[in-house]
Amino acid sequence: FEFTAPQFLRWSLEVLQSLVVLASVIIGFWLVRVSKNAHVLKPVMKYSPLGAVGWYFVPVAWWLKPFEAVSEIWDASSPKPSKRADRLLLAWWGCFVVSTFIASYGSFSGAGGWLTFVAHLLGVATTALFIVVVRTLGRMQREKHGVWLAAGQPVAPPSGPLQGIAQGGW
Q: From CA 134, how far away is CA 148, in angstroms rounded?
C-alpha cells in the first residue's frame, strides 16, 4: 500500500490533529487535578478547578484568565508565598499568547511563511516551558504535601498532580 504525497500529508495532519486533541484533554485533566490540590492547600481561591480549564473557551477572556488561574494555583502550591507570578509562568504564557497571535495574524493576512515559522518556534518554546511548569508545580505540591504530613494536618492533598488519574479518581 502506497501513499501519494498529498495523501500522506493529509494523513499526517490528521494524526497530528488527533494528538493535539489528546494532549489538550490530558492537560485539562492535569489542570483540574492541580487546582483541586491547590484548593486543599488554600481553600479560598478565585478560580474553581473547572474554571481553571473553562476560561480557555471564553472568547477574549482566554488571553488573561487562564494565566490568572494557573498563577493562583502556583501561589497556593508554592512553599514560599509570593504575591507575583513567577518568571517561568510569565515566559510560558507570553510565548503562548504571542505564538497564537502571530499564527492567527499570519494566516489571515496572507503574510505566510516566515510568520508561520516564527509562530512554530514560539510554539515549541511554549511546549518546553509548559513541561517545566508541570514538573515544577508537581514538585511544589509534593513538597507542600510533605510539610502538611509533617505538621500532622488532618487533610492533605494527593502526593502528585496525576495521582487522581492513576487511582481512578476521575
A: 21
